[in-house]
Amino acid sequence: xxxxxxxxxxxxxxxxxxxxxxxxxxxxxxxxxxxxxxxxxxxxxxxxxxxxxxxxxxxxxxxxxxxxxxxxxxxxxxxxxxxxxxxxxxxxxxxxxxxxxxxxxxxxxxxxxxxxxxxxxxxxxxxxxxxxxxxxxxxxxxxxxxxxxxxxxxxxxxxxxxxxxxxxxxxxxxxxxxxxxxxxxxxxxxxxxxxxxxxxxxxxxxxxxxxxxxxxxxxxxxxxxxxxxxxxxxxxxxxxxxxxxxxxxxxxxxxxxxxxxxxxxxxxxxxxxxxxxxxxxxxx
Amino acid sequence: xxxxxxxxxxxxxxxxxxxxxxxxxxxxxxxxxxxxxxxxxxxxxxxxxxxxxxxxxxxxxxxxxxxxxxxxxxxxxxxxxxxxxxxxxxxxxxxxxxxxxxxxxxxxxxxxxxxxxxxxxxxxxxxxxxxxxxxxxxxxxxxxxxxxxxxxxxxxxxxxxxxxxxxxxxxxxxxxxxxxxxxxxxxxxxxxxxxxxxxxxxxxxxxxxxxxxxxxxxxxxxxxxxxxxxxxxxxxxxxxxxxxxxxxxxxxxxxxxxxxxxxxxxxxxxxxxxxxxxxxxxxxxxxxxxxxxxxxxxxxxxxxxxxxxxxxxxxxxxxxxx
Lengths: 284, 322
Fold this sequence. Notes:
The complex is a heterodimer. Chain A is mainly α. In chain A, 71% of the residues lie in helices and 0% in strands. Chain A has one domain: MetI-like fold, CATH 1.10.3720. Chain A contains 13 helices and no strands. In chain A, helix 4 packs parallel to helix 7, helix 4 packs across helix 11 and helix 11 (196-218) packs antiparallel against helix 13. Chain B is mainly alpha-helical. Chain B has two domains: 2-75, no CATH class; 97-316, MetI-like fold (Orthogonal Bundle), CATH 1.10.3720.
């Protein structure tokens, strides 16, 4: 309890954490309340009103099929956020598992996993993601899984380092002496103390995953129309760049706002949870 | 030193081997393939002719034989021939490499020239208005999606102001221009892609540079330099900068894979004929040999980049001995 209070106090004193946190919550609320806010169905076509600039009827204009851009963006936030969270969930799970196991057991297991990390880090990541998406077929589910499967390496290294520094502490030796199993020691005694970098990496991870998803959707390799996504609205933006600036400006702003919110929150959390990792200003 | 380089080179062989194995597995285990694409395009294709196509591409042999065959050709620097136009993959990659290298080397240079002074200056001005502005702006730069920035620039400079061309490396009639105009033309085409590629990385590198500087500034020998009355400029630029620059070498090495593969989205946007677009085109048409080649070549460039960074680090920092 005391810990939680201390965290809340530090959190509200940290400007970037506070701004980021509030923005992240706002974005979440918008995504949840999408049907209440949108005013139009996200895939409701109206050819009579196609490619209209922003007006009172259509706040952010309409696309080439006469769909309301504002409504598509609001519903798109649901898709982008779910892809972000699902992908980060997968990559965090793998990163935790690989990092904990190789840090704890060491030896050939550690060697094997760390060489695997080297390999994954040496493949230009986006080439690999591109290849997987094309071969498995573009869909929301595939994009989530593929981003998750290719972005766990940094976390695995961080967790491994934390586990290495914890595993020979006295309380761990005591747990081992009293007969606790390896799994119990890792899950109950080591991981809870290694979570600080995990929270930070999850927050940055959501921003990164949304960035990759929107890039893929923009190229037609992610979320497929008629499902709305910020990336695939931008595809229309590029096709009609000569005439319809609003198709480029607004969805990009949504991606940008989301990413900056999560990055601010991540930066704030890093300052609070792990002063060692942040810029040296806080250290003085 | 020579022994260290040799050791590192030998260590990259298993990594390359692992990469090729994973890539190969992904390509062949996933559904779809060149024969599927071609039979979708032509519904009249009989199962018989599909089988013939598979034999032609060598896709009818057992997987391990296909892989061993690919490996043995790789040992002779032969990536095979493209399914699409039967040209050697090596030739296709070498044809695209200059465009990618031109863009990446220029952007790395610019990145270095802009980000390092920026980081140093903001560290020197700790807690000033400039530093606060720098921190906020670097956040914006760090978070802005490169492909959106590219679209915005195209919209602004290409469509509204009509100052710059929005795609390709040269104008259609560039070949007929006098040399001076040709250079001018290619610079014009280079500006937007270069800006996009540098902009996103400036934030990261300069923040890194700044915290490196701040760390060095707090060390004893800097205090000594100040105490003996050296002007602040000399303290920062002669004593602190040298040590703060060391980690930057590693960062540049680490950013190479991102520069190579990150290119594929905005290479596609700007129709820049580089490796990224080759990867995109070959993946879209299931051109297996080209994909294998591009991924392996990308990995090779990455490993070489890291190796060079480590060697440069050893040269720059006499404390490091191998």
